[in-house]
Amino acid sequence: MIKVAKFGGSSVANAEQFRKVKAIVEADKSRKFIVTSACGKESHEDHKVTDLLYLCREHIRYGVSYEDMLGAVESKYRRIKEELGLKLDLESEFAEIRSHLDRNVSTDYLVSRGEYLTARCLAEYLDADFADAQDFIAFNFDGSFDFERIEELFSAYLNTDKKLVIPGFYGFLPNGKLKIMSRGGSDISGAVIANITNADVYENWTDVSGFMVTDPRIVKDPLPIAYLNYNELREMSYMGANVLHDDAIFPVRMKSIPINIRNTNDPENPGTMIMNDCSEYDKVNPPHAITGITGRRDYSVLTVIKSHSSAEVGFLKKILTVLEEYKISIESAPITVDTFSVLVQTKDFEGVVYDVIERIKKDVRPDEIYVEDNISLIAVVGRAMRAVPGMAGSFLAELGRNKINIKIINQGSDELSIMVGVDNKDFEKAIQCIYNKFIIEEENMKKGS
Ligand code: ASP
User: Fold this and answer.
1) Of 6, 76, 264, 409, which cross-links 35 as Cys (Cβ 3.0–4.6 Å)?
2) Which has the higher per-residue pLDDT, 313 or 322?
3) Dist. CA 250 → ligand 1 center (Å)
């Protein structure tokens, strides 16, 4: 059994968190490959090391002293070293970093030092080997991973019984230059390591015990989600459930490796298991029709009305071309006989909405064109929904019963999710009433039976 355990920033925020990580790693021999983020915030007022390093880079760019920022990073690692009794030569490490700090310092190099230093400290503390991601996480020039190369380079680290600690978030390009990933990218590094080591499980240790049915800021103490499949995860993350980096799923899905989201501060909690196929588990524990309820606020709908437009060849294309020129990405595009609407994020429209309207007026000469703002999208996601006849009907009826006006409806043909657009002011109420009806009521029925 091989497990890759990735620890997020809050799991390595200070010496106390390092101790928890050690206990977790030592509790299970199969946790052989450990991937770490940079130290995160210790408290609400604290700063993530990565944020401080980005700030440091900006100060260098504008020729302003960066010492406060770099000093804060250095003292954080110094404290961890002292409290854990490490030998790591931090003075030379920081002298090396300082020697690169001129106006042309690579942002990627500087920002990656958070993961690098955290992994160095953790490797020593766990009595593990350290493997620098810059030596084996190979990118192609287009930013995709060169899995063959990674596997080949990584094999050099495998002839040891020791555990291996790897910094997340960065790798190198074919020309050897260090490259970082997008924010939160250590999740992706962990997934890549799980892929190349053919791990049995990819554990992602964070500060929550996995996914919950919905946002706890909206619904008090929502139920946890024990099992999810990859497609449900995609739908939920797209609509705003942010536990894991969106791109972390691809390297593990390629090999059907389950992802287990766990909580470093509550290691006994089994968290959420995300798998290709949950059917074995579902046989024992039939899931709710709805696995998760997610949503996002602040969308706009642009509606174009023109009689006989359905018969006009190229009508839709002309509208989409205008949106493409203004680099506006479309979330959904409901269409009826004479009406074409596009749903976009309001922030993408800001500053250009009047230009877009004028261009569309000129290009397609509509009878009417208007924009409506303040729309929230809510999606219910569930692998079991397909098997429940009338699900869409009862979902919409429940919103109606609660006097929530539905402006948009969209159900994918895979029947994995149903999305509705409601007024921003109804966002929280809609989520709460869906939760009450489809989760609480079902739970109560189960208990009663
Ligand atoms: N340290 C990086 C960030 O804060 C990457 C990560 O934590 O995954 O975005």
Assistant:
1) 6
2) 322
3) 18
